[in-house]
Amino acid sequence: MLSTLWLLLSFAVPVRGIYKFISCPHGKQCQKALLSSNDVLLQCSSAGAHWYYFFLQTRSGWTTTNTSVSNMVTTPIGHLLIRDPLPSQTGLYSCWNKNGTQETQYEIDFQDVSSLHITHKSLDQDPLHNESLELGRQETVFTHWEPWQDCNRCNVPGERKRLGYCYIQEPQEEPVPCGIFLGQAKLKSNRLRPEMQVEACLVPCDPQHSYHHEYTIFDSFSFSKESEALWLTCSLGSIYR
Ligand SMILES: *[C@@H]1O[C@H](CO)[C@@H](O)[C@H](O)[C@H]1NC(C)=O
Ligand SMILES: *[C@@H]1O[C@H](CO)[C@@H](O)[C@H](O)[C@H]1NC(C)=O
Ligand SMILES: *[C@@H]1O[C@H](CO)[C@@H](O)[C@H](O)[C@H]1NC(C)=O
Fold first, then answer.
1. What residue's CA is closest to ligand 3, atom 3?
2. Quick check: CB of 97 below 6 Å from ligand 2?
């Protein structure tokens, strides 16, 4: 099983931030669906490690020692930080130690966050239904839901959300994240996308739980005259919590 936890990095990488931490047992291969545009940190605890990556859509990749991809950085302890990942970075990531032995390997599907299908349960909006792909092997596209995240408030009505990833299953086979299943294949299907569901919640405040909310204050910005719009990017924001 993959375990995920939050890590606040203040010294290991040049830029502070909160990243979703993805780990995989030593010597194992782990498959995982995630969302694009949200920073992640792939675990590999081996100082001086180098990473080999291979992007499925473009069938390109190399090692972090002789190529650089601007949004990927190896931290001094060996983790791989991927900032603002793109759907085209769906692929294989393997970590090798100094002796040239593979430590761990990830197959990551960065599902396109801009195609997220969002529904509100308390407003009776329907999530996506299972659909068959008709590629000839009775493939079913379905949403694999993660657990509900914490309610955003306590003692008063709040909201909580959960993420759902696109998976494809063939009969008698293990389900596979859509982007990994399809690889380079481009299918025109409106079903091949991740989901988010929101619902109302009301929870008592738990004295054991520390309700520390990190926040960023934007105090220096200006609107663009043409669009009258503005993007504020919160470095502490993440769809995963
Ligand atoms: C990068 O390193 C890998 C593995 O050592 C090697 O196979 C590949 O040819 C190198 N690529 C370049 C562009 O030097
Ligand atoms: C690399 O190999 C040496 C010699 O076999 C060994 O002592 C060391 O523990 C190995 N290091 C790693 C990170 O596996
Ligand atoms: C959708 O498909 C998945 C995977 O095949 C299956 O586990 C699930 O029960 C299906 N859901 C419905 C409502 O048919």
1. 142
2. yes
